UniProtKB/TrEMBL annotation:
PANTHER family: BREAKPOINT CLUSTER REGION PROTEIN, BREAKPOINT CLUSTER REGION PROTEIN BCR
Organism for this UniProt entry: Strigops habroptila (Kakapo)
InterPro entries, per the entry: Abr/Bcr, C2_dom, C2_domain_sf, DBL_dom_sf, DH_dom, PH-like_dom_sf, PH_domain, Rho_GTPase_activation_prot
Taxonomic lineage of the native organism: Eukaryota, Metazoa, Chordata, Craniata, Vertebrata
GO biological process, one term: signal transduction
Cross-referenced Pfam families: C2, PH_19, RhoGAP, RhoGEF
GO CC list: axon; dendritic spine; membrane
Domain Rho-GAP residues, every copy: 553-747
GO molecular function, one term: GTPase activator activity
Annotated coiled-coil segments of the chain: none
Protein name: BCR activator of RhoGEF and GTPase
Gene coding for it: BCR
SMART domains xrefs: C2, PH, RhoGAP, RhoGEF
Length: 770
């Protein structure tokens, strides 16, 4: 016999020894199941039965037969392995075992019912509960699972034996036959039976379970692809939903998987280039949001008009397409996983919270898992994903029920008070995220509290909500020494010390008062207060009753009093931001501390001479916040109530020449202080956007922040209902109005130059030097 063949035949013996050991375990499981059956049956005929004969029949259905089949198989195999020779035949035993799979069929079909009956009997009957406890710590359920999963083994055994059995060996055709029967049987069962959560065996006595799954965007050769990822107890699987053909049920295709034992977040090969993330311009994302709001608006209109469901179905389909596109295009934070051979996979996520959550869950699991997976198992696992998945839909509004809360629209004031529970002193700060349009955005960041275990930030932020349902808080340790931290995802990061979230419940937040709350996150507790003001209250411009001060006073009165072209407050804030805020990430988008803003407001209102000293010591985000507040509190918008409707119509014109002529004429019709102040601000915002690579504020981001602030009309001209029936949720026509305000400002920001008539040009040149 050739050495290779010799080795193969020797391997057969080892495989068979493994099978015998496995069978011994399985038989002991079945024996343990049968142990209480006899006394239970005997008791059933007495006047005090523990279980009825019917219940016993259901719970122990086919177990005695299974025991007989496996006992016969074991008793046949054991002596043959004992008297081993290369000529020894075992194929007939496997063929016979495979031919008796019909008993399994009955056992499997009854499995769910047996489990349910056993669980019910345990709850209802103390004696039976005791019996199932007595059967050792591995109670009934585990015995069942073991019996259930031994089914899989027959396939694997035949496969393993065939690997080491020469084609010429008399066992070969018999084993092939047994494999064919058992595989057909398995696939037929797979389609019909709903796998329980632990349907996949990992190793003796442990079960592969699904821990977490969600939709994610994977970056594949520069293109964004929607994937469904599954984290099991021992592997990370990336799948894609197959296109459904005809009436076939959902199915997944496995794209790749990494055993958790081989998965790392660090690059194996440092020289490997981090893939370039293709960013989608904000304008495109905004166009999608506008479309989404318009379609939602149409759906509401059709519902009110009681139109046929066909129209609504068609609109919902369009909505789903747009929302899927937005979710595919919006995330741009890399989450990378690497396998042992250095192959990397990149996902794009919209929030640091989710990225941290995935890493934590994976690391936690890595501490306690072993791994083995054959190709048959992989196929079965992928098939079972359809039944196991917990996240069935992409997180879109389309999937929400009509009566589900559409989220909150308005302003959320959050005070981040303090935190306790840190083990050692460090430099700590928090960020706040809220969801809108199905994904999370970072909205505010506290200052860094240096060298402490009990930071007292006591900072208040005002966060704008667009259909938000959740507020998240992340606590970070600021790492000043960049080299200390291992690089993950190709960037050095501050370390997340804890994270938590609260649901924003409209019912609870309705009553306008501050609500205190504590968020616990792995040992750390953060104290917060939140207060919500819905849109129609937060965005009212108040008619001017004040003559003194600058906030809430007409701009013409202020400039006349100051003998200036541009109000002093606007010039001061712009100057300070240009001095030290141009490289601040998220300048104008990230909220400043509310108490600082109020202090500056008061100082400007009483014309405090020390205002410039105050400003130089303040966080630059508070100065940006003060400037925004000034424009927001003007009794009439900078673009005036009278001209606002015309601007909204002008921006909607499709002919670019007509649009430019209309928009410029309207702009130049503004009263002089309004026009000069606007042009002064416009130049400043363009300079901010020139530093976009550092401060991450594009013209579009700036337009989003300032559009409503500069254009939103006073109450009488707004399309916002004065006393809406639902005080807390807003219609989508509102979103459309806001988006049109953003478009108007963006239009002027993108114009190369704004030609002005000579008379105005003189005064403008003069004014910017004021």
């Amino acid at each position: 016999v050739e050495p290779d063949l010799e080795k193969g035949l020797e391997m057969r013996k080892w495989v068979l020894s493994g099978i015998l050991a496995s069978e011994e375990t399985y038989l002991s499981h079945l024996e343990a199941l049968l142990l209480p059956m006899k006394p239970l049956k005997a008791a059933a005929t007495t006047s005090q039965p523990v279980l009825t004969s019917q219940q016993i029949e259901t719970i122990f259905f086919k177990v005695p037969e299974l025991y007989e089949i496996h006992k016969e198989f074991y008793d046949g195999l054991f002596p043959r392995v004992q008297q081993w020779s290369h000529q020894q035949r075992v194929g007939d035993l496997f063929q016979k075992l495979a031919s008796q799979l019909g008993v399994y069929r009955a056992f499997v079909d009854n499995y769910e019912v047996a489990m349910e009956t056993a669980e019910k009997c345990c709850q209802a009957n103390a004696q039976f509960a005791e019996i199932s406890e007595v059967m050792g710590p591995q109670n009934l359920q585990q015995h069942w699972s073991a019996a259930h999963s031994s089914l899989l083994y027959l396939c694997f055994w035949c496969q393993d034996l065939l690997k080491h059995t020469p084609v010429s060996h008399p066992d070969h055709p018999l084993l092939q036959d047994a494999l064919r029967i058992s595989q057909n049987f398995l696939s037929s069962i797979n389609e019909e039976i709903t796998p329980r959560r632990q349907s996949m065996t990992v190793k003796k006595g442990e079960h592969r379970q699904l821990l977490k799954d969600s939709f994610m965007v994977e970056l594949v050769e520069g293109a964004r692809k929607l994937r469904h990822v599954f984290l099991f107890t021992d592997l990370f699987l990336c799948a894609k939903l197959k296109k459904q053909i005809g009436g076939k049920s959902q199915q997944y295709d496995c794209k790749w998987y990494i055993p958790l034992t081989d998965l790392s977040f660090q690059m194996v090969d440092e020289s490997e280039a981090v893939p370039n993330i293709p960013l989608v311009p904000d304008e495109e994302l905004d166009a999608m949001k506008i479309k989404i709001s318009q379609i939602k608006n149409d759906i509401q209109r059709e519902k009110r008009a009681n139109k046929g469901s066909k129209v609504i179905e068609r609109l919902k389909k369009k909505l789903s397409e747009q929302e899927s596109l937005l979710l595919l295009m919006s995330p741009n934070m890399a989450f990378r996983v690497h396998n042992r051979n250095g192959k990397s996979y990149t996902f794009l996520i919209s929030s640091d919270y989710e990225r941290a959550e995935w890493r934590e869950n994976i690391r936690e699991q890595q501490k306690k898992c072993d791994f083995s997976l054959t190709s048959v198992e992989l196929q079965m696992l992928t098939n079972s994903c359809v039944k196991l998945q917990t996240v069935h839909n992409i997180p879109l509004t389309i999937n929400k029920e009509d009566d589900e809360s559409p989220g909150l629209y308005g302003f959320l004031n959050v005070i981040v008070h303090s935190a306790t529970g840190f083990k050692q002193s460090s430099n700590l700060y928090c960020t706040l995220e809220v969801d809108s349009f199905g994904y999370f955005v970072n909205k505010a960041k506290t200052r860094v509290y240096r060298d402490t275990t009990e930071p007292n930030w006591n900072e208040e932020f005002e966060i704008e909500l667009e259909g938000s349902q959740t507020l998240r808080i992340l606590c970070y340790e600021k790492c000043y020494n960049k080299t200390k931290l291992t690089k993950e995802d190709g960037e050095s990061t501050d370390r997340i010390m804890g994270k938590g979230q609260i649901q924003l419940d409209p019912q609870v937040l309705q009553d306008k008062d501050w609500q205190r709350t504590v968020i616990s996150m792995n040992g750390v507790e953060v104290k917060l207060s939140v207060k919500f003001t819905s849109r129609e209250f937060s965005l009212k411009r108040m008619p001017s009753r004040k003559q003194t001060g600058v906030f809430g006073v007409k701009i013409a009165i202020v400039t006349k009093r100051e003998r200036s072209k541009v109000p002093y407050i606007v010039r001061q804030c712009v100057e300070e931001i240009e001095r030290r805020g141009m490289e601040e990430v998220g300048i104008y988008r990230v909220s400043g501390v509310a108490t600082d803003i109020q202090a500056l407001k008061a100082a400007f209102d009483v014309n405090n001479k020390d205002v410039s000293v105050m400003m130089s010591e303040m966080d630059v985000n508070a100065i940006a916040g003060t400037l925004k507040l000034y424009f927001r509190e003007l009794p009439e918008p900078l673009f005036t109530d009278e001209l606002y409707p015309n601007f909204a119509e002008g921006i909607a014109l499709s002919d670019p020449v007509a649009k430019e002529s209309c928009m410029l004429n309207l702009l130049l019709s503004l009263p002089e202080p309004n026009l000069v102040t606007f042009l002064f601000l416009l130049d400043h915002l363009k300079r901010v956007a020139e530093r976009e690579s550092v401060n991450k504020m594009s013209l579009h981001n700036l337009a989003t922040v300032f559009g409503p602030t500069l254009l939103r009309p006073s109450e009488k001209d707004s399309k916002i209902p004065a006393n809406p029936t639902q005080p807390i949720t807003m219609t989508d026509s509102w979103s459309l109005e806001v988006m049109s305000q953003v478009q108007v400002l963006l239009y002027f920001l993108q114009l190369e130059t704004i030609p002005t008539p000579d008379s105005k040009r003189q005064s403008i040149l003069f004014s910017t030097e004021v």
